[in-house]
């Protein structure tokens, strides 16, 4: 599944038409799907559909027709001047005897449900004048609003705030990234019959889906032993950051690593999990790490200023490595790539900013662009730019266009210390199990967020997310995970 910008979705629309798929069929499917979602989610109130002049308005006119046919009380207010498909949708509705009133005549009616079909992907620039005051009036009414495709006005200010957004054909950046995502409320994605070749474009970011991630889960044969399923070496810790490597080790073990070893400065108070092998080191020279039983390394958690020394020591092992936190320095990553080691880097916006010479705020505002920049700067490394949502990027060879992926799990309750250390352990475990860096990174990020979603409460702790990993993996493997865009199943399926 791909993530679209408005332009990319318009291009998909054009490709569908180019393939011979009539655009009116798309509008009919879109409008009917909106009507079905509305009818299910709001079984009783009067429905007021507000329609713009373009195809978003056309979808609203189709939805109004079906809701009316299903016996719902419907009022429609529309801008004048629909043409093309939207014009046909208007006359089809009028043929059923429904009188369409001018938008200017709309006034809030308590108890009604609003369907926002004013603007979708065709909006160019911010709303002003009449449209801005209409948006203000709708928002002030406090009436529950269902947005068709996008809350009108996004991605600019002002815009409507929806309780529910019915995304058509594909998810758009506004449905995933903040602050726009907050205006969408619950998002339900509906297919509208768009031909697959029109939808797929390799340049668009991949969205991590339950089906796609399930296929990446390593299979564990019945005769597995602790030496055959991937062993992880965690290299980190320092006087005051004693918890970080412990959380990484715990998460690696909870992700199925057969054996976890924690190497940390002797004399520091690092307390590896009971099940881990301890490797207290006198210094970061590298000799102490030799002989560690591992197929992958996670380095940098809680090392403080010793991050570079720790990473250089770990480099000597020649193993697939996850580089995190204090080890995330340009010279370290370059050294790993020069050594041609499979490498995953997991910066948060602050660390990414340091690597790119930008501020953390700039990185956080442009996560897709920033992840792509990191991938170009460090070709061959799988880049995990952490955030809500996390974005991943990889330029397989120098100067190649990065492939991008966006996570669809995780929540704001995960904004708490140590969560990143847990992620490192998960990804390292999948590296050790033999996954390529790009697969280990995507699967690890997805499961980390899924475990956080299964807890789902503010106040959750990083170690609880690690403890929840076996359940997350089990649910994923059994097909018991649904994307956030899936409609809730209901006993009464009929509209
Ligand atoms: N993608 C798909 O596969 C399918 C997409 N479908 C649907 O089509 C939607 C996209 O439809 P769209 O392209 O007609 O654009 P839309 O959002 O209705 O807005 C256009 C109108 O806005 C106006 N306008 C623009 N900017 C403005 C401003 N700043 N301030 C004021 N006005 C402004 C512009 O005016 P104009 O510039 O033309 O004078 C025009 O009247 C999409 O979201 C989905 O719902 C489905 O039907 C089927 C398949
Ligand atoms: N609002 C959020 N939505 C989704 N995930 C989040 C959110 N806030 C934090 N996370 C996740 O929690 C982790 C935090 O990592 P990081 O900042 O490195 O934490 P720490 O340094 O404390 O270990 C990342 O994986 C990030 O994606
Ligand atoms: K809309």
From TrEMBL:
Cofactor field: Mg(2+); K(+)
Binding site for K(+): 56, 116, 152
Gene Ontology annotations of biological process type: metabolite repair; nicotinamide nucleotide metabolic process
Keyword ATP-binding attached: yes
Keyword terms: ATP-binding, Isomerase, Lyase, Metal-binding, Multifunctional enzyme, NAD, NADP, Nucleotide-binding, Potassium
Top-level taxonomic group: Bacteria
Ranges where the YjeF N-terminal domain occurs: 9-200
EC number: 4.2.1.136, 5.1.99.6
InterPro entries linked to this entry: Carbohydrate_kinase_pred_CS, CARKD, Nnr, Ribokinase-like, YjeF_N_dom, YjeF_N_dom_sf
Gene3D superfamilies, sorted: 3.40.1190.20, YjeF N-terminal domain (3.40.50.10260)
HAMAP family in the cross-refs: NADHX_dehydratase, NADHX_epimerase
Signal peptide: none
Gene Ontology molecular function terms on file: ADP-dependent NAD(P)H-hydrate dehydratase activity; ATP binding; metal ion binding; NAD(P)HX epimerase activity
Subunit composition and interactions: Homotetramer.
Pfam families: Carb_kinase, YjeF_N
Protein known as: Bifunctional NAD(P)H-hydrate repair enzyme
Domain YjeF C-terminal, chain residue ranges per copy: 209-476
């Amino acid at each position: 599944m791909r993530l679209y910008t408005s332009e990319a979705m318009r291009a998909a629309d054009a490709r569908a038409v180019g393939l011979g798929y009539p655009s009116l069929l798309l509008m009919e499917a879109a409008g009917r799907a909106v009507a079905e979602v509305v009818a299910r989610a709001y079984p009783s109130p009067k429905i007021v559909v507000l329609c713009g002049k373009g195809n978003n308005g056309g979808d609203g006119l189709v939805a109004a027709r079906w809701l009316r046919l299903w016996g719902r009380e419907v009022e429609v207010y529309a801008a004048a001047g629909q043409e093309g498909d939207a014009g046909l949708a208007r006359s089809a509705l009028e043929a059923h005897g429904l009188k369409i009133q001018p938008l200017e005549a709309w006034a809030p009616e308590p108890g009604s449900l609003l369907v926002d079909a004013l603007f979708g992907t065709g909006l160019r620039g911010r709303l002003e004048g009449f449209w801005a005051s209409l948006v203000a009036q709708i928002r002030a009414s406090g009436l529950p609003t269902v947005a068709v495709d996008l809350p009108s006005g996004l991605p600019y200010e002002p815009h409507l705030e929806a309780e529910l957004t019915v995304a058509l054909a594909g998810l758009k950046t506004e449905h995933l990234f903040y602050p726009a995502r907050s205006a969408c409320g619950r998002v339900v994605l509906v297919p509208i019959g768009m031909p697959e070749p029109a939808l797929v474009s390799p340049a668009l970011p991949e969205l991590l889906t339950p089906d796609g991630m399930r296929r990446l889960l390593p299979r564990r044969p019945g005769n597995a032993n602790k030496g055959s399923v991937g062993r992880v070496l965690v290299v980190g810790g320092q006087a005051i950051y004693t918890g970080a490597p412990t959380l990484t080790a715990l998460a690696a073990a909870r992700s199925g690593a057969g054996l976890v070893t924690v190497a940390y400065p002797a004399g520091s108070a690092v307390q590896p999990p009971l099940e881990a092998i301890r490797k207290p080191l006198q210094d970061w020279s590298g000799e102490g790490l030799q002989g560690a039983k591992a197929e992958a390394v996670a380095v940098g958690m809680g090392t403080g200023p010793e991050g570079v020394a720790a990473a250089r020591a770990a480099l000597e092992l020649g193993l697939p490595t996850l580089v995190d936190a204090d080890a995330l320095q340009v010279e370290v990553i370059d050294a790993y790539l020069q050594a041609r080691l499979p490498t995953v880097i997991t910066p948060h916006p602050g660390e990414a900013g340091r690597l790119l010479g930008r501020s953390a705020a700039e990185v956080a505002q442009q996560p897709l662009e920033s992840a792509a920049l990191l991938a170009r700067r460090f070709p061959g490394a799988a880049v995990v730019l952490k955030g809500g949502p996390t974005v991943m990027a990889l330029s397989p060879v120098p100067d190649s266009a990065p492939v991008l992926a966006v996570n669809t799990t995780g929540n704001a309750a995960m904004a708490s210390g140590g969560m990143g250390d847990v992620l490192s352990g998960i990804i390292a475990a999948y590296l050790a199990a033999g996954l390529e860096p790009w697969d280990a990174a995507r699967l690890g990020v997805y499961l980390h967020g899924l475990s956080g979603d299964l807890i789902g409460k503010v106040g959750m702790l990083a170690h609880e997310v690690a403890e929840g990993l076996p359940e997350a993996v089990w649910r994923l493997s059994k097909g018991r995970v649904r994307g956030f865009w899936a409609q809730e199943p209901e006993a009464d399926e009929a509209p």
